[in-house]
Write a structure and sequence with these properties.
By secondary structure, the protein is mainly α. The chain has one domain. The protein contains seven helices and no strands. The protein has helices at about 1-25, 30-50, 65-75, 75-95, 100-120, 125-140, 140-150. Helix 2 crosses helix 5 and helix 2 (about 30-50) packs across helix 6 (about 125-140). The longest helix has 22 residues, at about 1-25. The protein is globular and about 50 Å long. The N and C termini lie far apart (about 50 Å).
Length: about 170
């Protein structure tokens, strides 16, 4: 009788485990989630460029690059809020205890990577090379920003693999 009870308990546990595994979300990004991370990477890059190169006055009203970044952010805040929400949904599906903290960690990691790249270069060379990105972004409309975020480059991989499409 004891062996039968142990066997039944083991069967129930195995069944529950397999149901849980089948319901678990894949640990990969959809194309939209990958684009959301890319969009936040672009946004973080522009912030670091604006901060590091704010001494450079640019065309639009002779505003420094950090002010141009802030204007860009304000003009496209809905896009970036949407990207953040998409990643929060991903973290929730993955069972993250604190999706907002995961998002903040991602944002910090993205900004730190660009900051490290900036630290390796002389400030004048960094600004000469990267400052034009702020002006280029400032000229973009929402559709262009979304296309940019949805363009994946091997040199800038996202933090999760992209899910294989089911055929």
């Amino acid at each position: 009788m004891r062996k039968l009870q142990t066997f039944i308990v083991a069967l129930i546990c195995a069944a529950l485990f397999s149901v849980h595994q089948a319901d678990a979300a894949p640990a990969c990004y959809t194309l939209d989630e990958a684009a959301a991370e890319q969009g936040l990477r672009i946004h973080s890059e522009l912030m670091v460029i604006g901060l590091n190169c704010q001494h450079m006055a640019r065309a639009a009203g002779n505003k420094n690059l950090y002010m141009r970044y802030r204007e860009f952010t304000a003009a496209h805040s809905k896009i970036f809020a949407g990207y953040e929400e998409r990643l929060m949904q991903y973290y929730r599906r993955q069972g993250a205890r604190d999706p907002e903290a995961r998002l903040n960690t991602l944002r910090t990691d993205l900004a730190n990577k660009v900051s490290k790249d900036a630290a390796r270069m002389r400030p004048d060379l960094f600004c000469k090379r990267y400052a034009p990105r702020v002006e280029k972004a400032a000229q973009m409309n929402d559709a262009a920003i979304r296309r940019w975020a949805a363009t994946f480059y091997p040199s800038y991989p996202v933090s999760q693999p992209i899910c294989k499409s089911k055929k």
